[in-house]
Predict the 3D structure of the following.
Amino acid sequence: MQYDIEALIHTMAEQLQTRLVAAGISSPALVGIRTGGVWVAERLRAHLGLAEPLGELNIAFYRDDFSRIGIHPTVEPSVLPFDVDGRDLILVDDILYTGRTVRAAMNEIFDYGRPRSIQLVVLFDRSGRELPIEAQVVGAHLSLQPGEHAKLTGPSSLSLEIHRARA
Amino acid sequence: MSAADIQLDDQGRLRHFIAIEGLPRALLTQILDNAERFAPVGDRTVKKVPLLRGRTVANLFFEPSTRTRTTFDLAAKRLSADVLNLNIEASSTKKGESLADTLRNLEAMQCDMFVVRHQVSGAAHFIAQQVAPYISVINGGDGRHEHPTQGMLDAFTIRRHKQDFTRLKIAIVGDVAHSRVARSNIQALKILGVPDLRVVGPKTLIPPAIDAMGVTVYDDLDEGIRDCDVVITLRLQQERMQSALLPSAHEYFREYGLTADRMRLAAPDAIVMHPGPINRGVEIDSAVADGAQSVILQQVTYGIAVRMAVMAMILGSQAQAGAA
Amino acid sequence: MRLRIHGGRLIDPSSGHDAVGELWIEDGLILSLGRAPRGLKADESFDARGLVVAPGFVDLGSHLRDPGFEHKATVVREARAAAASGFTTVCCTPDTDPVIDNAAVVEHITKRAADAGGARVLCLGALTVGLEGQVLSAMHALKAAGVVGLTNLERAIKDTAVLKHALAYAASAELTVFLQPEDYWLGRQGQIHEGAVSTRLGIPGIPAAAEVIAVHRDLTLAAAADARVHFCRISAADSVKPIADARRRGQAVSADVSLAHLSFTVDDIGHYDPNFYVRPPLRAASDRSALRKAVKAGAIDAISAGHEPHDGDAKAAPFGVTEPGMSTFDTFLPALLAQVAAGAFDLPTALAAASTRPHQILGRDGGRLVPGSVADLTLFDPACQWQANAETLHSSGLNTPYLNQTLTGRVVATLVGGQWAYRNSSPV
């Protein structure tokens, strides 16, 4: 299935705006999870007209699979260019799957400080949750067969690739 | 057998960190890059990442050293590892227990990593050969041999300030003969491609045939530091005077002490480094140690990130090897 | 008792004889060489086809560790190991506990060795009491007890006056002094050859000068005292010439090199392999090649084993705190043949240096295949390949760098005074 991702993000931004107004949040801070979440968060930031730069999380040091696969060879560290204490955060990822990435991201955020609230925004939500984590705003729900994996490619033009894992 | 053989696993991953000698440039660069990722952790409210949660790192210090032990301690704790500090000098070896026996006992405590400091050259190498395969060893300084994490944190400090190793003139000044820091510096900087590496000191403090390690020997300080981008001064131990290697600390300072006047011979933007602890007025003048060109305190800070990187890489490759 | 050894290649380095033939032995002495004696019948025949038959080896400095260090080795086991390695005589060093500085220890060792039935064990007495370099040992009493020489081993005598007196007193007792030349102050803190390797590994070095200075000093003192000296384990190229010059001047001096110093260099230490920690230290390739040439030219008389067996714990530590020494009996023949194969010198020269010359240095019969000489012989298969491991090594010292390596050349039998001291029960 083909998705118009820019249109999805536009709709997500509108839903998010509605939620923020309802919750009385006037000055949210966006945090994208590297790498796909950062691409989505950049676009949401433009739609919402936020002046403040994005926070970017690299959850490599918080993953729970270190004891299986060791240290990830990624280069960019996490950057949160604002004080998270008392802030309303919008955490953005591309695909919500097991929930482990979001768990790791929230752990890392709390090592920077204590936010007032966190909303989770994801471009795609697919089945396979292993932790009790749900997104507040979802671009689209993916229904994948067992053994299929989705990956967002970017950053200039975003598109979704679905791979069948080799048996 | 080369030093690299015991340090790398069959995939070329770091398994122990005993010596810089023989390691590939790509691996040293990887350590520096990873240290860059760990450096910001120290600037946060919670200076800790959960990477090594549940792992146990034992600091085995057969020779006293508050400073090095503290930075290893801090690095392990910032990775959320549990840390066991054992001052072995004061306990078992005095009772006549052999090192091999001590190691068996420590293995029984089920640690994942030993950080070892020992007064005998080759001790870390020996311990790495002896320990059970699930334990990794980091050399925190062995005799006059190597102090590889110090070598890497010095390289990290230099890269932060000077970026490209392949254009640098670097002088290492002082008691090279008795210095494991100097040996690790030389090994690291040669592997990283420094084209003009010098050792400077009186002939009694320069070990024989050191030019085989790729350095140029100077016994005149002014000539040795001329146009250098980095000047690394080494600590001078009082014992050197007693063993007739030098007449006096006073004369040493006059001939080899790094002063502001002498630093004018180096490149205008040169940095000054020292592995600590400093003997002010012996190998370096306070005006230089505390001056604008000094990066001595940065070395201490960077030391934590570099040690975090090495620990995470080693325990990561241990984990990968275990999963494979 | 008359023994006939037939079919073997008989090599007598003393006469240059080198041919396949028969060797007859009667009552512990060589009866004939080459052809069978007319009209005699042998009580026993030994088929030595494919083997070399040569005079048995001598080690001028074997650390047998007994009494005092029986956890490392015992006289009985090492005397048998020596015989199994082709040695017919070994000189036990005095670094036992108690030290061989009195007749009782000599008697103890001699008795135990006689019971062992292996190689002959002769004792070297201590030059100073307790090897401490201060008080002269009772040299006449030691001589009466049977010591073949005096030595202070690697424990350099600090006080040159003591050394001068010791040489003079030994001269009046007519005992050879076995010197391991090293300047105390230059050697005391070092562990390996001073140079690029000691610098890289951060191990304190012993400069070649430590030995060369001592050789010059000792030669000067010995000449003045008219003492007979033998230099043990020469390691430095620059030690060769002063010894050769002194001999040319008519001084009573001889020298040996350990086979380890002909086989290895400081580079073999690699990364702290304690099996290569020996005293004096293994030196540079240029030293090794000079020592090989000196053996070939006869400037260095003898090749010694310098056997130093250790228990496992002695080497199970970081390099600098291990005990120096290599276990060398078992690997002596293959290592010697390896020198020949590498072209360092020919086989008769090797056998002369391992047998004929050390017999002469000790002033004892042996080291030659001539009628009337004592039948101390070794029979070896120069082509046999075997693996050195805990099962095949006879010495209790497994501290050899050859462990788990395949070696070429194996002793098949050894005769001491015409009696079988060793016969390989399982020929390969």
Remarks:
- The radius of gyration of chain C is 21 Å.
